[in-house]
Design a protein that fits this description.
By secondary structure, this protein is of the alpha/beta class. The protein has 13 helices and 18 strands. It folds into 2 domains: about 300 residues, Aminopeptidase (3-Layer(aba) Sandwich), CATH 3.40.630.10; about 160 residues, Glucose Oxidase, domain 1 (3-Layer(bba) Sandwich), CATH 3.50.30.
């Protein structure tokens, strides 16, 4: 089923749902405050938290903030001895000092260049080839007659005739994709020249460029070179600067002769193994019976991307979901416990979810899992007039329990009225959105699991596409849906019916 509720079955389904399901007391009073979400985001996007890489200082500060907010809301810790924080070790390999030489000019790691998106294979050597913006499209083609196989390519970041100062996260997404395509075509390595302001932000992000132990990549990383450093290289071979090269390439795809082609390139990068400690934050609402909890998830570590840092919107929303559920439980305890997990290690192979799954199973496996992720904006792929900003991607709701799927649809229809969009719910979805979430590890054990999102970072977007601003009111509606469904799931008279 990829959209079980097609127009032919809608009326029958709603009638069936009304007959078999009576909403749990208190659901119609659920309110998620947009102002409270905004307050959380003001803290979570503070520059002090830019280092939100797993185990980084920003990650630790975020964990402390989450604990304080959960305590204030009246929840208890979900770990052993009712503690909120669990520390866990992560083995990784970190880029340390290194040198990049192009011809007679040398550059130092971090000061002049940083790396992303791959693992260096010892020392990388080759010859340089300048390919402009590296774009191949109708009417503008930097790649015609270009030799790519085995070459080290140099690109200018951005787009021709485009004066926008692109956000760092967008620049890296676009140029990372462009670099990957060229490496897939046989390029040995890709160097990207980016504006100095974007490079300063990349330096802040460099601590996140850590590869977990056992990480393997068939490609060398993309090298991001600051514009000031690149101008130092150009000065030894031409009178042009990077800015002047941009102007030459603004309307014409013909590549200027910069005297760079054929220069020897050598990247000697040191990588050191190390171990860091990160934290998971677990809170719990006790149930009348101790088994089969309802599990709510949001990962809180990541990169400082965009207007709202990576997944902070989901974290802020989930904090308010936890607070609202605690208020409901003070009036009447749920039948089953509710566990709220703020996990780290999402980008390290869902390491946090693996720990939590082992911690809960097999004695206390969840009845259901609801995950919030990537709800920090409006996807430009979903701006059709009939959808607008009110859509919500829902994946997995029917995979293991049609009953849960029906409950989700009915609460939304009666209380929230978002447009539930199932375009990524197909098990054969090529973007793999559902599989990227932490909840998927539980779905693999046939535990009913829903992932809610408003963006899909793995769907193909136009390169010039910049995500729109975050919608706080919409986040509050998503939070209401999650809180309402969680409360229902925690109070079903019998375990969920499985498919």
């Amino acid at each position: 089923m990829q959209t079980f509720f097609g127009w032919r079955t809608w009326g029958l389904t709603i009638l069936f749902g009304i007959l078999i399901h009576i909403p749990t007391k208190g659901q119609d009073h659920i309110q998620i405050s947009p102002d409270a979400i905004t307050g959380h985001l003001e803290f979570l996007k503070d520059p002090l938290l830019l280092d939100k890489a797993t185990g980084g200082s920003g990650c630790r500060l975020t964990a402390a903030y989450l604990q304080s907010q959960l305590i204030e809301a009246g929840l208890t810790g979900g770990n052993s001895e009712s503690s909120f924080l669990t520390s866990w070790p992560l083995n990784y390999q970190q880029f340390t000092q290194g040198t990049l030489s192009i011809g007679d000019v040398s550059f130092q790691y971090f000061d002049d260049y940083v790396l992303s998106g791959g693992s260096p294979k010892d020392t990388v050597v080759g010859e340089l080839s300048f390919l402009g913006y590296g774009i191949r499209e109708q009417g503008y083609d930097n790649l015609k007659d270009a030799e790519i196989q085995g070459q080290i390519l140099m690109l200018i970041g951005g787009f021709p005739n485009d004066d926008r100062e692109l956000p760092r996260h967008h620049m890296i997404r676009v140029m990372g994709d462009r670099s990957l395509k060229l490496r897939q075509q046989g390029a040995k390595m890709v160097l990207v020249v980016i504006p100095d302001q974007a490079f300063v932000e990349m330096q802040r992000y460099a601590v996140s460029n850590q590869q977990s132990a056992g990480f393997t990549s068939q490609f060398n990383p993309t090298v991001y070179l600051g514009e000031k450093a690149a101008n130092r290289l150009l000065a030894t071979h031409t009178d042009l600067t990077i800015n002047q090269v941009r102007k030459l390439l603004a309307y014409e795809d013909k590549l200027p002769d910069l005297g760079l082609s054929g220069l020897p390139v050598k990247l000697a990068q040191e990588v050191e193994p190390d171990t860091l400690r990160s934290q998971h934050v677990l809170a719990k609402i006790e149930g009348k019976q101790p088994e089969s909890p309802v599990l709510l998830l949001a990962h809180y570590d990541g990169s400082p991307d965009g207007e709202i840092p990576d997944n902070s919107a989901a974290v802020a929303t989930m904090l308010e979901v936890a607070s609202e559920l605690e208020k409901l439980s003070e009036k009447q305890s749920p039948t089953r416990p509710i566990i709220i997990g703020f996990l780290s290690g999402n980008r390290q192979g869902n390491a946090g979810a693996k720990w939590l799954k082992a911690y809960l199973e097999p004695s206390n496996a969840p009845q259901a899992v609801l995950e919030l992720s990537w709800i920090d904006g409006v996807d430009s792929l979903n701006l059709e007039p009939e959808q607008g900003a009110s859509y919500l991607y829902v994946t997995g709701s029917d995979r293991h329990s049609q009953e849960m799927h029906l409950m989700n649809e009915l609460f939304n229809q009666n209380q929230v009225r978002l447009k539930l969009d199932y375009r990524y719910n197909d098990p054969d979805d090529l973007t793999g959105l559902y599989q990227k979430g932490d909840g998927y590890l539980f779905a693999e054990s046939e535990i009913p699991t829903i992932l809610y999102a408003t963006q899909n970072p793995w769907a193909p977007h136009p390169e010039s596409d910049v995500p729109t601003r975050a919608d706080i009111l919409k986040m509050s509606k998503i939070g209401k849906l999650v809180a309402g469904l969680a409360w229902e799931l925690a109070n079903t008279p019998a375990p969920l019916e499985r498919n």
